[in-house]
Fold these 2 entries.
Entry 1:
Amino acid sequence: MAQGPVFLTAADCQRLLSHLDVVAQIERALAWDAAGTIEWPTPRSLNIIGDKWGNDFHVKMCVLDSVPVGGIRVVSHPLDESSPVNTRLILLVDPTTAWPLALIDESWSYVQRTVGSIAMAARHLANPDAATLAIVGAGRLARTAAEYYSRLFSLQEIRVASRTSARRDETVAALSAKLAGVPVRSADSIEAAVRGADLVLTATSATTALLEDAWVGPGAVVACVGTAEPGRELLERADLFVVDNRDQLRKELIAEYGEGSPDWIDATVLEIVTGKHPGRTDQAQRAVLVTEGIASQDIALAYLAYQRAREAGVGLELPFGAAAPGFEQP
């Protein structure tokens, strides 16, 4: 009888995976993509953007041939994607048998992958001595991102700006307690946080531009989780505009900036990491990174959690099909 699938909670994933595991698995997924060993559907994403209740639905999938494992990622959330009320599940399947391996709540790992992939890409783009990080936003993504940046860079200062001063100050206090040795300061405005910063991260639910081109100095690397956050002027004038996937971001860029905006893209993260694109060729060049997230990284991370769970005997066994008591093959 086949072994039934296992259910892993977000807390299980948090216990099983470290920050270094997350970054290493993201880079592994990029290497598999570069080698052409990931199978993708057409189209890559099925979306209902705003149903009559105001929620978004996404289904993404791929097969990681190198493992091998298949993954189907199912997401639904209110328009404010930072809402704690959401559905984020990954179904892992053995592609050689089509048998389900695991059902994983990726509420924790989604956040880790989102900011882990951004920090990893920023590391490949930034100057070696980058030491000042400006964060625009004070939510879960912003706080988690600060942890990743502090592990990948030798930070000497973190500045936090937010529309809500109380939440900003809470974030500063939380990060100060967690990131011992790195001064974390409140900034009275986005401009005050960004001017002179080597690294800039915008992690908000904003649908309008947060940054002005004049605030971003030579050599800075700006990373944004939303297409609107950097603004037209900065995107057009940046020396290097990098995205995680051209096709995936095309619709959003056109909707935000018009038909010609996809032509602004200079490279993808994959091209930078694998050396197919040289990245910045001068330390004074300014780079802007906009990422949406690639399902292969989420599925690779889910599979690593599943491997660790099986080794540790963690997770809830689910009765399924031939593995379920009393099941009779028709």
Entry 2:
Amino acid sequence: MDVSIKIPKWASYVVSDLTDMERRPQKLSPKTIRSFKLKLPDDCYFEYAFVRGDSETNPKAATDAKGLEPDPENKQKADNPWYPGISAVIGPDYRADPLANPQLEAKGKVRRFRLESKHLAETRRIMSYSPAGFEDKLLPTFYIQDGVAYYRIAKLPEVLETLIAEGYPPVHLIFIEPNDRAKEYRYNDSYQAFIIEELLPFIQTELATTSQRGAMGASLGGLMSAILGIKHPDLFQTVISQSGAFMGSPDELDFYTGQSSWVLETLGEKERLPLRWYIDTGKLEWLYDINKQVAEVLNAKDYDVQYAERNSGHNWVTWRNGLGEALKFALSGLKR
């Protein structure tokens, strides 16, 4: 479908799923160009916003401060908890996945911990969820980056309970919340040491856990999950990455215009690791190509991999729509 977007007179920049909402605002000239057109799939979900002219000298500062404004000509608001009120285009054939809004209530046990980390030199808060009826049972564990978002926005415990009711095996969910995700998730050795040397042993003392583990996250959280799996295949058996920020490397911390990809290059060079992979991505985002390339390398190496792409962008609607299939894949690989 063709979408015509009128540029407000006050707008100096446009941001969208295609360029990321914060890092790469696109310059506008409303005095000379009054509108632009997008050709989008009929089943799309796409988010965008404008930045005012008074932010022209420093558009990144404006977007970092969440200074994004919706399209005054578009009444459709995005379902985006990180950028509330921005605009969306929803195609006539778009359908949400049934598990994007799970109806089954999560009645399991939530535990909250405070862990003193020597590697991070601070106290970190960790939360776990054990499904109803399995609160103190010996179970595998899934470690989730951006834990609060997956807990509150994606409703991961509710998705898990729904799948358990359908016959899938239970797991403990470990929700990890970063203090500075851009710093910690980008090949940060101290953060990795915190996970491997401090958090995993701590959880083993607090919960009844088996040796089966999964690593899970979105965007930079997907990158960190991939790093943990690749570096520690003896500790993690499954990686779930949603819109993984696979561009860049330890020597090139640029996940937007970087030319390298440590994940892609390392998987291509290494012999096949004992890892299962679920990868999904939006087709309307700048990370689409690199996610597709990583999936192709995994297939070529004969990994157990499931890959999915959707006509949507880099947002929680995309990730919620993929969460059910991601969890089905991860749970189906567990030893009973």
